[in-house]
Amino acid sequence: MKLLSRAEEIILLTILKLDNYAYGVNIREQIYRDTGDKWSFASIYKPLDKLNRKHYVQKIKSDPLPERGGKSRFYYKVTFEGKQALIRLYEAQQKIWSGVPDIKLEFDQ
Amino acid sequence: MDNKSLTLPKTVDFILKLFIKNDTLSEWTGDLQEIFSFQVRERGLTKARIWYSFQILFILLSFFKTQSEWGFIMFKNYLKVALRNLRRQKIYSFINVVGLSVGMTVSILIFLLVRYERSYDTFHQKAATICRVADENYSTTAANLGQALKQEFPEVKHAARVVKLGGFLHNEKGFFNDTDMLCVDPEFFNMFSYPLITGNLPDSLDQPFQVLITQELATRLFGNNDPVGQTINYNDRFDFAVNGVLQNIPENTHIKFDMLVSMLTYKALLGPDLEHFLNRWGSHDFWTYIQLQDNIKPIQLEEKFPQFETQYKDLEKMDLFLQPVRNIHLSGNLRFEMETNTDVRNLYILSTIAFLILLIACFNFMNLATAQVTKRSKEVGLRKVVGSSRGQLIRQFFGESMVFALFALGVSLLLVKISLPAFNSFIQRNLEVDVFNDPGILAIFLGTAFFTGFVSGCYPALFLSSFQPMRILKGDKFGSKKSLIFRNVLVVFQFSITIFLIFCSLVVFNQLRFLKDKSFGNVENPIVNIFISDAQLRSNPRPLENELRKNALIINLTSSFNLPISIPTGNNVTWEGQTEEEKFMIRQTNVDYNFTDFYGIEIVKGRTFNKVFSTDRDLAVLINETAVRRIGWEDPIGKRINYGVNEGMVVIGVIKDFNHKPLYDEIEPLAISLIQDSGYFGGVNYISIKISADHIPKTLEFLEKTLKKFSSRFPLNYSFLDELIEARYQTERKMGRSITYMAIIAVFLACMGIFGLSLFTVEEKTKEIGIRKILGATASNIVFILSKEFVKWVVIGALLTFPIAWIVMNKWLQNFAYRTNIGFDAFALALALSIVVAFLAVSFQSIRAALGNPINAIRHE
Fold it and tell me: For the purposes of burial, counting CB atoms within 10 Å of the CB of B636, is it exposed (0-12), middle (13-18) or buried (19 or more)?
């Protein structure tokens, strides 16, 4: 089973953080707050589409909103399979980092 | 900051919607718009808009370029190489781009024209179900047909007649004799979409003498005042009341008018004597339009026509068929068309020529690209050695040609915009080129560019990518036999097309000159025709005529109801002993006593009108040879015929056939009688005056002053007969001119091609030339040797074209009842012209080479 890519992981975690009110704009803002990188919309929509196709997220159409001039937004929610994928990744991460010689010393120098 | 101005241009929107679902598209645009105002604050409005476009672009790219990530990287390399080549080979690149953009501009203009012509009458909501009823080769039918069809066939939902109203308008603002006025039945408005700005359709035309006018006419007649309720005088006889204003009608329609009048008005104008015109069979006076029920195809109704026709065969011989209204403009001209239509076949011809010109441009590109083969061969060899596949090389060279094509597209966009006004005035249309809001136009532009890029790139891509690295590194030459032959074939083809076009334009001009010679009047004594507008003058022109005759500048004078070049009215003619099948339509007009002398119309039998015979006035008629032939009389003198309202007219003479119609048509039977005082055909419309060619301005001044004495209200309205005659052949003249322009462009392109090729050949042959010079060749020898090759190919091309050109031109000449022969001289001229031009193109290079120092040539080892 292939692991999630970095971008996919970050996006899934961000959606969880935003607690079911995640859509293009605030995912991007949250990532900026966390990483300091301004991601382009392309680099968000494409992984989202892939996640959607893998059924790791669910795309929900909201009701028409006034600030969109009557159009609706699409919100994203992490599915159960998505959460499983994240956990798999986390466990793999733990295993990969364990047993690595302590690199903290090198940083101090 | 507002972001309401952030709608994508229509074309972009259209393209995007093709590929992406609407929902996703609105998700992206919605999200982007939410932070658009923030972006505006950060970067400013313009940069924010650019950011917006780029975001959309990147999103698209990320979705559609997943597999070509490497492709993108290679693409950058190819682009770099292509641009490098462009900069290095400036001359070649320039020739290529210019050639391609000229070719593309011409093609694009023609495609735009074709598209416009095909859009005629598509704006009516019910256009798909409206048809015009045509009869054999008449576009008009009998007055009763419309309603008869509606009663007989449930498939017919509506029927309406249309007829043109001639005459002029007159109010305090001035005198208007160029307005188009149509009389229509009330159902006309159910069928066609002509929205009103003010007024109510059902009521607007229910009384006679009420009219609807277009916004344009309203401004002309009444300025800024409200036209509704105002009156305008018609023909110095009746007052029309304006009851409503119509939206200006678009130009792409065959039904053009400034004013709509009801049939009731027409009835009133005809008067009690001629009212029956509106209720009769046996004539072709009205255009009849019908609207079919939805889901009925015209062919279904047409099948039922033969049965219908037999019911009425005693009243009217019919051969009906339906013309869907959107096709009328393209289907050529029947008799009495509302306005001159084009013919689809002309459009096909134009498109083909455009396509050929584009091909010439592409061939140029191909030739030049392959001529640079030696220079690129090292690059190709190296790429192959380093591991490039043939497919990649093919893609590279296609990419290069696409770059050229897109570059040329940019240039041709400019050229199209620049040449549009001239083009519009030439074709007498009003084309608009709005790339951003009209997806069709964008499609035409891009399509042409891609086609050009693809075709031009074909040969170089396939040829260059097939090189084998070993042979290149060994230093083998690549002017191989095959490529040389191919290049020469291309040159032959280019010049064949050019010669063909030159030949065609020569033939067309010959024919036009021939047509001009076969008409009236001559240069020494031009004929001026004055149109009489004043009603009083029309019924009593004698005082004016006498006054005019007094002047020495006036050589001769006559008057008539119609001019001899245009006799539109006709009626069925009957005579004693005539059978049903023999019935035919005869044209008729009324003239003054000396008409035949004035116009030099020969009397073949009998005599012309003579004041001595008092019965001539009401009973005498002259008929032409064709009429006599149709009737079949041995000696027509003294026999009687009836036509229209003229009963028992006695034939006093037979006139020689003359061309009262343009020379496309055979001469029609004609009956001429003397001017009547009253009635619908009463009075005099034209006074024709033969003047001396010297002192024309003085004569015109005199005419104006004299006319003012008798009719102060109306200005002098005159024209020269030879100008009117020339105007009849407008279409042919235009076609001749456009073929000439195309020929010039083809010559230009072919020359550029040869110029470029000769550049290369001369370079190739530098050593050879150097050695020849050392051995004693003179400059002219060298030039001759270099040019000989090319001229040979041009002549071969010409010989191949000759049979095709002959066949095509013969076919075109069939359109004319009177035609010239296609002489060999036209062809010889075309050939000579091409040779001269080709020679000139080569000579520049050859002269340079011939005059150079031979030592320089041999030195470069």
Answer: buried
